[in-house]
Design brief:
By secondary structure, the chain is mainly alpha-helical.
């Protein structure tokens, strides 16, 4: 778990450095230009846009989209480590909780890989490449465990591992383990957001994140015909939407009734939901709803970063924009490789 650091924060310096890094990210115009390139040219262009060092690491044993994706994730890990190094005091604790979410995601990746029966070689070569030193501890778990329960036990020295151990004896499903990790992560995030150098806007943003996770989970669980009782148990506490409304939402039997119940809360922003729901039904996918929620969060974070220029927000906003750049590039290179049109890819990219 992230602990609140002592000493003084270097908010002015960290905010300035984060803004400088954000200015160096790929702008929408350049991203759209990449859309017009063929699969072979995209990799070379991405390398020239700040990813060359990592791409060279994987060039000897990987090719095409696999090499580019591995390099992009490796670059993100390096970038996150550098951000932590230039943050000090309580600010570092606040930024750390954002970066720690990637450790929770890697814990999920390990659990899914072990649960899916992936071989150690496959995990080490493609899922968590050994060239990335950030993957070393995770690969040790993979090599020394055979079952999901063993993998969870091997994480016992971490906050996410401790949370998983609470499920011992209940024979939890993989989904239940992932939900437990989400609850633990956001409990930690809320605690850190109350610390020194934080502010009410940060708390509001984290609580909005929780709401959005609960909303997409409710739509997903409804589609999977999960029982109302189970859906209620899987609610992540701490969001802005009242717990009573979320419990009622767990009883909904249709997407329309679920949306109507969510509208009972003044903290639910329903703008764009009608259209997203129609698209979701047409495509038989929740992508449109997830994308809408992501757009809303980015808009909130952008506003807070500009309203609070000397705060943790510029650093957090940069992290989110960097992650978004990686996501767009991964979508671009993988989509081009499988033959998706530029129009389809652009519709799914987030600027």
């Amino acid at each position: 778990m992230v602990r609140v650091a002592s000493g003084r924060s270097n908010i002015y310096n960290a905010a300035a450095r984060a803004k400088a890094r954000k200015a160096s990210l790929i702008d929408p115009t350049r991203m759209l230009q990449l859309l017009q390139l063929g699969p072979e040219s995209i990799g070379a262009s991405i390398g020239e846009l700040g990813y060359r060092n990592e791409m060279d690491i994987y060039a000897s044993r990987m090719s095409g989209a696999d090499a580019v994706e591995a390099a992009l994730v490796h670059n993100l890990d390096n970038d996150l480590s550098e951000i932590l190094r230039f943050c000090q005091g309580p600010l570092k604790s606040i930024v750390s909780i954002y970066i720690e979410r990637f450790s929770y995601e890697k814990a999920k990746t390990v659990l899914r890989s072990v649960n899916g029966g992936c071989s150690d070689d496959l995990i080490e070569s493609q899922i968590l490449p050994s060239e990335n030193p950030m993957n070393t501890a995770w690969l040790d778990i993979v090599r020394n465990t055979e079952t999901v329960a063993e993998a969870a036990n091997a994480m016992s020295g971490t906050e996410w591992g401790k949370e998983l151990l609470k499920l011992e004896g209940t024979n939890p499903s993989l989904e239940e383990m992932e939900d437990a990790l989400d609850r633990q992560y956001y409990a930690n995030a809320l605690k850190i957001s109350k610390s020194k150098d934080s502010n009410i806007h940060l708390m509001k943003y984290i609580r909005t994140e929780i709401d959005h996770r609960n909303i997409i989970n409710q739509f997903r669980e409804l589609r999977q015909n999960i029982s109302p009782e189970k859906r209620t148990q899987m609610i992540i506490p701490g969001g802005r939407i009242q717990q009573s409304v979320m419990v009622q939402a767990s009883q909904a039997t249709t997407q329309e009734s679920l949306l109507d119940i969510l509208r009972r809360s003044i903290y639910f922003d329903d703008e764009g939901f009608e259209e997203a729901l129609i698209e979701s039904k047409n495509t038989q996918s929740l992508d449109s709803i997830a994308s809408l929620l992501t757009h809303k969060r980015h808009a909130i974070l952008k506003r807070f970063a500009y309203l609070n220029p000397v705060s943790p927000f510029p650093v957090i906003y940069y992290i989110e924009r960097k992650v978004l750049e990686i996501q767009n590039l991964r979508l671009l290179v993988r989509g081009k490789t499988i033959g998706l049109t530029s129009e389809v890819l652009e519709a799914h990219m987030d600027f």
